[in-house]
Write a structure and sequence with these properties.
The chain is built from ten helices and twelve strands. By secondary structure, it is α/β, with parallel strands linked by helices. The protein binds 2'-monophosphoadenosine-5'-diphosphate (ATR).
């Protein structure tokens, strides 16, 4: 029951109608008997500053931040966690004496993959060079990746991300386009991550950038898309007998990391998972 003592958490974005986060967080509060509630708030671009100020005034304890506010919101925070600063985007805010920004997107992907294998020392190919690729590539290098290949349709965008990664983390990174070179790089890759929107609902039959002939049995293939659960690239991975990590796992673990930041408690993966399975059915 919501009472005068209930602590408020939420999500700001535009749109927020289809978010799955409330299902996960509210299920975990209930199972852990924590007196919190998680509510989505629709915030337009020109209202972002007012929303952060208002949230602070209302003593909201924390927020998730989604499209289109992840970069812009940094202007209105007092401090940034080191990873969020490196990535240049925030998906989690904690309101304390100071308003602090974090980014749990990359950690969500790394924890999802690490259910299957460590990323430490591994050769990782990342498809795409947008915001999601940026969060994941920074975190995966911070988590000890051996070599990272950014494969992107627009080579300049891949180069720019590579330049950032090399400058800030002195990492072993290569940027290539989607062509023959990608084929070669995949031969001895350990992990492949799709961060492009190819195959996302409703375009579920869109041809993936990597097909089964380009994969091998020891490859781990992760798509960050969770709708559908088994995207084109994951279906190709199954054909190639490679291991798969669905996008739902990243969604779960980024949520778990945010939950920990706000409450100090590690929630159960199963509770998050069950909440999602119920709603995705
Ligand atoms: P996000 O913030 O979710 O990462 P984004 O910043 O729009 O989204 O980035 C999407 C990425 O997917 C981009 O790297 C984009 O490639 P370009 O840099 O060439 O635009 C990539 N992408 C999107 N549609 C694609 C397609 N049909 N084929 C290849 N790459 C595609």
């Amino acid at each position: 029951m919501i009472t005068g003592k209930t602590k408020l958490l939420g999500l700001i974005g535009d749109p927020v109608k289809h978010t799955l986060s409330p299902y996960m967080h509210n299920a975990a509060f209930e199972s852990l008997n924590l007196d919190y509630v998680y509510v989505p708030f629709h915030v337009k671009k020109n209202e972002l500053k007012a929303a952060i100020k208002g949230a602070s005034s209302l003593e909201i304890k924390g927020l998730n931040v989604t499209i289109p506010h992840k970069t812009e919101v940094m202007k209105y925070l007092d401090v940034l966690d080191g990873t969020a600063e490196l990535i240049g985007a925030v998906n989690t805010i904690k309101f304390d004496e100071k308003i602090k920004g974090y980014n749990t997107d990359g950690l969500g992907a790394v924890r999802a993959i690490e259910e299957t294998s460590t990323v430490r020392g591994k050769k990782i190919v990342i498809l795409g060079a947008g915001g999601a690729s940026r969060a994941i590539s920074f975190q995966i290098i911070l988590s000890g990746a051996g070599r990272v290949i950014i494969a992107n349709r627009t080579l300049e965008k891949g180069f720019l991300l590579k330049k950032n990664l090399v400058e800030k983390l002195d990492a072993d990174v290569e940027a290539i386009d989607i062509g023959e070179k990608l084929n070669d790089e995949l031969k001895d890759a350990d992990i492949l991550i799709n961060t492009t929107p190819i195959g996302m609902y409703p375009n579920i039959h869109q041809k993936p950038l990597v097909t089964s002939e380009m994969m091998h049995e020891n490859l781990i293939v992760n798509d960050i898309i969770y709708n559908p659960l088994h995207t084109g690239i994951l279906r190709e991975a199954i054909k190639a007998n490679a291991k798969t990590v669905t996008g739902v796992k990243m969604l779960i673990y980024q949520g778990i990391e945010s939950f920990k930041i706000w409450t100090g408690v590690e929630p159960s993966v199963d509770v998050f998972n069950e909440a999602l399975v119920k709603v995705l059915k």
